[in-house]
Amino acid sequence: MSAEPFTRISVIVPVYNEEENVAELHGRIITALSPLSQQWEILYVDDGSRDRSFDRLKAATTNDRRVKIIRFMRNYGQTAAIAAGIDHAQGEVVVFLDADLQNDPKDIPTLLTKLAEGYDVVSGWRAHRKDAFINRKLPSMIANGIISWVTGCHLHDYGCTLKAYRREFLKGFTLYGEMHRFLPAYAYQNGARIVELPVDHHPRTRGTSKYGIERTFKVVLDLITVKFISTYAHKPSYLFGMVGMALIALAVLLVGYLVTMKLLTGASLIESPLLLMSTMFVILGVQSIFLGLIAELLMRTYHESQDKPTYRIKEAVNLTETE
Asked: Where are the domains of the chain?
């Protein structure tokens, strides 16, 4: 398997309220990248931190033009931070890394070595994850299974931020919601060769986690959107038609059941709430899902037609106007 060589690497690190970790994190990243033969840059994206994360970043990165900092006006979320990093990255290879020190920067060269073997995406796999089982690991396992099944891109750990991509597979789509975790699936649908690699994972020792179990529900909703966009964006009538026919078939079955009961037992069709309740719940549920999908499409059209990003930058360090 041959691969195009790469000469420049961009490491993107979303940061939100990690003042206790950023100085040590930066030192570890520098240690990991310094031996590399390729040129590299680090892009920290401060996602509207309310603590001193931005000040600590500036202090740790003074006078190093290879280090760039983007500061958002407010908290837009990890997906927007990753999108900003991609927009301003200059490398042919892009690596994502969390700022909480649970990902280990020393794994970056290992991912790059694997990428050089001919892969387009190397996805970190926290095989020995150091998180609570009930509210972190279990929901993650369920989400990984669902995402793999729906998208056809089978990975153990979609939620691991530590991943390396060839830049061409990060183009052609805009990220919203929690959709950064679906980047491997987007790349897979565009023909990327993907491999998963076990990486170290450390327990959080400073700061607090920004995510809870409610994030799983957001991921499921975004997954519905991803499936719709990837499969039915150019032929929505297929999906809506199939759902419409399924609902009609269900209605026919219910009516058939009620008519049969009428003939056998004399039960009243008018007095039975079964048909009305079933029809109402099915229609309301389907309408709710599809209204969300339609709203998502409208939002994408709004942003992309006007070339508006999903974030606003308050301050930048070491960025030029062309980046």
From this structure: 8-231+310-317, 234-305
Q: Which residue has the higher pLDDT, 21 or 143?
A: 21
Among candidates 160, 153, 69, which has minimal Cα distance to 111? 160
Q: Which residues contact 278 (CB under 8 A, 6 or more apart)?
A: 250, 254
DSSP code at position 103: B
Identify which of 274, 267, 96 has the alpha carbon closest to the alpha carbon of residue 175: 96
Q: Are 46 and 70 in contact (CB under 8 A)?
A: yes
What distance in Å separates the CA atoms of residue 222 and residue 214, rounded to the nearest whole number? 13
pLDDT tens for each residue of 156-179: 888 889 999 999 999 877 777 777
Topology of domain 8-231+310-317, CATH: Spore Coat Polysaccharide Biosynthesis Protein SpsA; Chain A (3.90.550)
Map residue 322 onto helix, strand or coil.
coil
- State the amino acid at position 258 in one-letter form: L
The model's pLDDT over 216-262, given as tens digits with 9 standing for 90+, comes to: 666 777 777 777 766 666 566 666 667 777 777 777 777 778 778 87
